[in-house]
Amino acid sequence: MTDKKITIMVLEDETILLHAIQKKLEFSGLNVIPCTGAKEALDYLKNSEDTPDAIWLDFYLKEMNGMEFVLELKKNENWAKIPVVVVSNSASDQKVKTMLALGVKKYLLKAEYRLDDIIQKIVDVVENNCLNKNEAGC
Amino acid sequence: MKSETRRWTILIFLSFIILGSGVFFILYLVNSGNSFFIDASQIYWIAAAIFLIWVSIISIYIFSSSLKEKIILSENNEEMFRNVFNFNSNAIIITDLECHILKWNKVSEDLFGYSETEVVGHPIGEFIPTEKECNISEILGHIWEVEIKNKNEKTFVAEISATSIRLKNGNFTSFIIRDISERKKIEGSLAAKASELDNSQKAIINVLEDVEKEKAQSEALLSGIGDAVVALDNNFNIIFINKVFEEQFGWNSGELIGNNFYSLIKAENNKGELLGEEERPFYLSLKSGNKVTTSVSNPYYFIKKDGTKFPAATTVTPVKVKDIVIGAIGVYRDIAHEIEVDKMKSEFVSLVSHQLRTPLSAMRWYAEMLLNGDAGKLTDDQTDFIENIYKSNERMINLVNSLLNISRIESGRIIIEPKPTDLKGLIDEVMSEVKVKFDEKQQTVLISVHPDLGPINLDPKLIFQVYKNLLTNANKYTPDHGQIEIFVSKKGDDVVSRVTDNGYGISKKDQPKIFEKFHRAENILKLETDGTGLGLYLAKAIVESSGGQIGFESEENKGTTFWFSLPIKGVAPQKGEVSLTN
Fold first, then answer.
1. What is d(CA B458, CA B421) in angstroms, rounded to the nearest whole number?
2. How far apart are CA B96 and CA B101, in angstroms?
3. B534, B382 in Cβ contact below 8 A?
4. Other C-beta atoms within 10 Å of B156: how many?
5. How far is A25 from chain B (nearest CA, A)?
6. Which of A99, B296, B379, B535 lies 20 to 30 angstroms, CA to CA, from B449?
7. Do A111 and B401 touch (CB under 8 A)?
8. pTM for the complete prediction?
9. What CA–CA distances, in Å, run from B21 to B18, B27, B93, B108, B271?
10. Nearest-CA distance from A69 to chain B in Å?
11. Which residues of A lie closer than 8 Å to B, measured between beta carbons?
12. What strands, in cross-sheet order, belong to the sheet with B483-491?
């Protein structure tokens, strides 16, 4: 493990929630890339050299929904490697199955978890990912 | 006749002899000459004498023979009379005008038991009970019936008629008595049968009237039903429709009755695909002999005569006579409005899902961060206040979740996905979530699951909720240091789970309402205001959708046991659209 802070890209269209998430992540010592929409997120990815360590994805976004976003991610081989954790307000079995099948690491229901729990889960995902990949910079 | 000819023969013979002898005598006298010297006038005297002699002898003969006849006749008559008198089938009693018995025939002897000698001279009233005085004029010409007890104590019913007899030696009264006991018996049973028939006839008329009335009622009912009704025979020919059917489908009865249902009434599914006959409810019902329904969530769209469509909830019930399906009746309810309402409901549900939960999540997370000290250390009061905010928020989240679940269950849109589930494992999962609550109140929890219980096909997410609700209730409504037991066993075809506590119990007053939405029992409201009153309603809905039953036993201040059963053979899957939230 390095000293480099873990960077999480958060896609959440509700600003009030995005703000809380951002704050908490920062309090927990993580870097945050807040995005209110898919377009914003994709733009950032295109323009940045670094990829975030994980993506916190809300399902219902403004321009496209979570599933479409993940499909977009897959188009780029770098982006496809980023572990995605879906944190959403609603979760029908159907949605969960589909997302997990697409490679999403976890699907969490906002209402069921405390914020610090969610963050812990994401950190776990990142660390697992690192361990699996054994990449430089982990 | 023979005696007549005999008589005439004898008469002629006698006449011949006498007259012949006379003629010969005269001839002799005439021929014998003078020895007797008879002149012509003396011959006439002799002829006359001979003639007289002839007449006398003939008369004597006639008289005596007719006398003899008369005697024979009279003897015959008497015998005839005696026979008639005695061997008549009726009892005949001859009395004088004061009703004293003079003659009493054999049949009377048999009937009354007394011989003639015993009764002669006695008034007839001794043997025949009669209110009438021996008033001949009253008695004559009447027939009356009376019950008589004879010498041998045997009773019989007699019909008595009296006539008067006028003879040379006086006036008499003749009583003819008939034993009509048999006749009476037959009359009695005939009367009974007649009255039975009369009653049967009346009953039949009543039934007919009732049937007429019912028929009229049924017709009124049928025409009053707001839904379309059609009846088909088992060849799918239309035999009956009501007015609403005509209006709704756009055909008139003339075009429908007698024709094949499917040739006229087409239907589509909600994707717009035309349905084949084998998918139609009437076909399925007549084939299986069972009731078939379509629902609001899966409506069929029926095509009217003019080509427009409307969604209908269908119920088709087969009509059986002695277990043989002879036809079916279908009822169609236009559910366009219901579908609209349902659409609004699902939109509402998703609205609630998203719109309500976002601020709830936000509040929760901010409160969390504050309590965590992420924004700085809090004073004790600040901590206290924010904890309260957090708790209230929790309650709201629970309420919203419960409401959403209820709405989903009520609309029948819940997905039930049964998988083989180990109940012990499921209970352990629930416990891991709620254990902290039991620890807080220092309550002990004992779990006992039947060892031979294999995995049961059920939807673990749903049954998880049921256990969670029952356990959180047990925890909430039992004081500190209480004891809770979970007991899962087999009972016949079901697996029964029981959650028992020794807590506050449910009062008799609250027991009937315990499964109602939002109901919270009086005794616990005072102690624990937290609670939506929806947990049991939800548990019941889940258990019943899974083909099971739920119930409880409770005594106030002693404790409560909630139990629910699920079929061992498993829960039927249900295709739905949504799942419950935790």
1. 6
2. 7
3. no
4. 18
5. 10
6. B535
7. yes
8. 0.50
9. 5, 10, 59, 62, 147
10. 19
11. 14, 16-17, 20-21, 23-24, 27, 60, 89-93, 109-112, 114-116
12. B444-449, B483-491, B494-501, B559-567, B549-555
Q: Which of B418, B413, B409 is nearest to B571 (CA)?
A: B418
Nearest to B264, CA basis, from B303, B229, B228, B233: B303
Q: Is B365's CB within 8 Å of A89's CB? A: no
With contacts defined as CB-CB under 8 Å, which chain B residues touch A112?
Answer: 582
- Cα-Cα-Cα-Cα torsion B419, B420, B425, B431, nearest 10 degrees, comes to 40
Tokens of B386: 């924010």
Please, which residues 403-442 of chain B have a Cβ atom closer than 8 Å to chain A?
A: 415, 417
Token pair in block for residue B102? 């003079």
Q: Do A90 and B354 touch (CB under 8 A)?
A: yes
Question: Do B365 and A90 count as a contact with CB atoms less than 8 A apart?
Answer: no
Which parts of B180-293 are beta strand (E)? 228-233, 238-241, 266-268, 292-293
ipTM of predicted assembly, 2 dp = 0.84
Nearest-CA residue of chain A relative to B433? A112
Q: For B57-141, where are the E strands, in sequence order?
A: 91-95, 101-104
Question: Which stretches of B409-556 are assigned E, i.e. beta strand?
Answer: 419-421, 444-449, 456-458, 483-491, 494-501, 549-555
CB pair distance less than 8 Å for B369 and A60? no
The CA distance from B538 to B552, in Å, is 15
Tell me the one-letter amino acid at B214. E
User: How near does any CA of chain B get to the CA of A12, in Å?
Assistant: 11
Amino acid sitting at position B288: S
pLDDT averaged over 10-residue windows placed end to end, chain B, 582 residues = 80 86 81 65 82 86 82 79 79 86 87 88 84 71 84 87 83 87 87 88 86 82 81 90 90 91 90 87 88 78 92 89 87 86 75 79 91 92 94 87 76 77 92 92 93 88 92 93 94 93 92 86 79 86 89 93 91 69 58
Estimate the crossing angle of helix B40-87 against helix B2-31, to 10 degrees.
Answer: 160
Distance from CA of A75 to the nearest CA of B (A): 29
The one-letter code for the residue type at B225 is: I
**Interface size, chain A vs chain B, as Cβ–Cβ contacts under 8 Å:** 64
What is the b/e burial string over B28-62, where b = at least 16 CB atoms within 10 angstroms of the residue's CB? ebeeeeeeeebeeeeeeebeeebeeebeeebeeee
Of B366, B397, B415, which has the smallest distance from its Cβ to A111's Cβ?
B397
